Amino acid sequence: MRPDDGRRRPSEVMAALGILQLGDPRLTTPARELRFPGDEREAARVLQRLSGVADAVLRAHTFSAGAMGLAAPQIGEPVALALFRPANAPQIVLVNPVVAEASPADPGEWEETTEGCLSFFDFRCLLRRPKRIVVRYRTPIGEPRETVFDEGRLARDVLHEIDHLGGVLCLDHAERGRPSAYVV
């Protein structure tokens, strides 16, 4: 189905770039953790593939929120690896990320706003997320790291991609009785 003007829908563009779309069971299957030492080559291979798709996405679309994230399961790679391309900052790569802390502690104080997903790019989800998170993860060569994400939308974007690694979509966070998705 195409808009009346004949252009491809955003989800069709993302599918053509190799991003799995809503309904594909690989998007809701939890990714497996990479082991270190041992999985360094696999991490490098998946990161190279993920980076190539991210490059293509950035050529096809301008992100007004200033960042773009992509998780390995979104390109059919069932491993716990995600990358972020914040505007005017170096790329961030998270392997086996775990949220160690989120704040504020009271979900009633979390920020409510919309977020998009390359796997269903025709609409946005409305949900609450913490404003600040601490994430423990590994680099692609297995070095342990811990980072605080609290600038702009970065905490939200990181949580979105960590959700993907667990087989969770932003739609899964919908609150009963509240609108949860908006067509773009």
Write the layout of secondary structure elements.
Elements: H1 10-16, H2 40-60, E1 67-71, E2 81-86, E3 92-103, E4 111-116, E5 123-129, E6 132-138, E7 144-149, H3 154-165, E8 181-183
Antiparallel strand pairs: 1-2, 2-3, 3-6, 4-5, 5-8, 6-7
Q: Helix proportion of residues, in percent?
A: 10-25%
DSSP strand tally: 8
Order of helices and strands: HHEEEEEEEHE
In the predicted model, the low-confidence regions spanning at least 5 consecutive residues are: none
Gross morphology: globular
Structural class, from secondary structure content? alpha+beta
Rounded mean pLDDT score: 91
* Strands side by side in the biggest sheet: 1-2-3-6-7
User: Distance between the terminal alpha carbons, to the nearest Å?
Assistant: 15 Å
What's the total helix number? 3
Main beta sheet strand tally, sense and closure: 5 strands, antiparallel
What Rg, in angstroms, do the CA atoms define?
16 Å
Strand content: 25-35%
